């Protein structure tokens, strides 16, 4: 039975929770590396500290997808309970994250944060396929991308904005600036409110055959269903998985290393290390006083550290703002596609291929960028990001069993998290150092990865998946 077509505002309401999800992702992606550096992490150790994020997705998303496939409540629906649980946990974690006293606490909270975001996120993907007919799915995923772009731009600019409003972005050595603390608190509030908006404005449809649904739910078992879903994975899903592999390797590289790479190479303001300015004990560790403050060699060194740290924090704010530009351009990309896909079909394959190509060139241009031209890199990257968040899911939704949409969306996430795990376990450091030792070469690596992802689109041949 063909699902009824929904209006723009009905699709907007059911997708609005992604604003909060993207606030969480943008703050995590734009500022976690800054937090790690502030708490004493070396740059080459940062990707490893990020490993919690993809590992959590690998474990959480198939389980959440399976549970939401097998959930139905006349009062709460199928996907909405998972939106709410994830939102509550993520909002609490966002609030406490910038108060982390030491590095291991921040790394642990990143684990909790990413788990919570994942609980909310994949059910949102499945909701589009649940409620929209085939003819509106491209439009539905594009509207999600539009909202994601808005969230990315606003959240990425939050520390810069609150600094402009008078909140300090300076702090003592090893202390996270107040501007970041306030930005994460705002993010926590927006995350919860936007999810609640979707919950209260969107009604989920019951299974077409409720008796059959209850029978299948009674007979379902996670491990056998997981194995069966692996066996049923269509070839189009596997080919899309290869595209996703190189796409998400690129973006994980950006999230984990863009702040140190760009503050160093573009703004010439690297994070000063405490060891250069402070007194050290016999083991080479930085000495701290009774108030847990760094003991500097002398007042001149303390003043020099403070000045260089201010320059780094100013540069990091500007990198965050520049990063937010890719949210704006992905929003523009989504807005154009929203108008077009409302009444027309598109070739998802070639749109995705071209967008990834543009994004790859944007990463490579970072090597030549100046503070005033860096935004052009992120404008180009935004086209890739907008497409990554919509076209693969639109193609996937046309190629898999609709009764297992949540499980399949969860399994599809493997092709997102596995490259991130490989990157975090040393893949980034190994491959970018083949190009050169400077951290900016990690952005070159990200560009090459996106170009490979673009070419992999030639593998997609399923006409139903391509046209929509």
Automatic annotation (TrEMBL):
Pfam families in the record: MFS_1
Keyword match Transmembrane helix: yes
Residue intervals passing through the bilayer: 12-36, 48-68, 80-97, 103-121, 141-160, 180-200, 240-258, 318-338, 350-368, 374-396, 408-428, 440-460
Location within or outside the cell: Membrane
GO MF terms, alphabetically ordered: transmembrane transporter activity
Keywords linked to the UniProt accession: Membrane, Transmembrane, Transmembrane helix, Transport
SUPFAM superfamilies the UniProt entry points to: MFS general substrate transporter (SSF103473)
PANTHER family: SOLUTE CARRIER FAMILY 45 MEMBER 3 ISOFORM X1, SUGAR TRANSPORTER
Official protein name in the record: Maltose/moltooligosaccharide transporter
UniProt organism field: Flavobacterium micromati
Lineage per the UniProt record: Bacteria, Pseudomonadati, Bacteroidota, Flavobacteriia, Flavobacteriales
């Amino acid at each position: 039975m063909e699902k009824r077509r929904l209006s723009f505002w009905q699709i907007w309401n059911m997708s609005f929770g992604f604003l909060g999800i993207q606030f969480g992702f943008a703050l995590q992606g734009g500022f976690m590396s800054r937090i790690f550096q502030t708490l004493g992490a070396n740059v080459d150790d940062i990707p490893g500290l990020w490993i919690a994020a993809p590992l959590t997705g690998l474990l959480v998303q198939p389980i959440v997808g399976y549970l939401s496939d097998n959930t139905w409540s006349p009062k709460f629906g199928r996907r909405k309970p998972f939106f709410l649980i994830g939102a509550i946990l993520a909002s609490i974690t966002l609030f406490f994250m910038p108060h982390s006293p030491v590095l291991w606490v921040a790394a642990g909270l990143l684990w909790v944060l990413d788990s919570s975001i994942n609980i909310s996120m994949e059910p949102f993907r499945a909701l589009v396929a649940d409620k929209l007919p085939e003819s509106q799915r491209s439009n539905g995923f594009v509207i999600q991308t539009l909202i994601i772009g808005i969230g990315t731009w606003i959240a990425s600019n939050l520390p810069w904005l609150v600094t402009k409003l008078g909140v300090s972005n300076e702090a003592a050595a090893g202390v996270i600036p107040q501007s970041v603390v306030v930005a994460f608190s705002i993010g926590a509030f927006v995350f919860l409110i936007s999810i609640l908006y979707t919950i209260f404005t969107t009604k989920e449809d019951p299974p077409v055959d409720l008796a059959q649904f209850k029978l299948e739910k009674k007979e379902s078992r996670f491990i056998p269903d997981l194995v069966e879903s692996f066996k049923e994975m269509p070839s189009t899903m596997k080919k899309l998985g290869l595209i996703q592999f190189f796409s998400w390797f690129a973006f994980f590289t950006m999230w984990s290393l863009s702040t140190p790479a760009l503050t160093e190479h573009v703004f010439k303001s690297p994070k000063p290390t405490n060891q250069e300015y402070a007194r050290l004990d016999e083991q080479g560790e930085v000495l701290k006083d009774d108030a847990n403050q760094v003991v500097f060699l002398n007042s001149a060194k303390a003043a020099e550290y403070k000045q260089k740290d201010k320059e780094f924090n100013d540069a990091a704010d500007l990198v965050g703002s520049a990063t937010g530009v890719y949210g704006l351009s992905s929003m523009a990309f989504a807005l154009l596609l929203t108008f077009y896909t409302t009444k027309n079909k598109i070739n998802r394959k070639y749109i995705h291929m071209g967008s990834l190509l543009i994004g790859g060139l944007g990463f490579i241009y970072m090597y030549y960028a100046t503070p005033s031209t860096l935004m052009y890199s992120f404008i180009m990257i935004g086209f890739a990001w907008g497409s990554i968040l919509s076209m693969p899911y639109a193609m996937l939704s046309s190629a898999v069993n609709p009764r297992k949409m949540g499980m399949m969306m969860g399994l599809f996430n493997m092709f997102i998290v596995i490259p991130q795990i490989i990157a975090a376990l040393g893949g980034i450091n190994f491959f970018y150092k083949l190009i050169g030792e400077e951290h900016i070469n990690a952005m070159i690596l990200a560009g090459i990865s996106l170009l490979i992802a673009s070419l992999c689109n030639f593998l997609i041949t399923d006409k139903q998946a391509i046209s929509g």
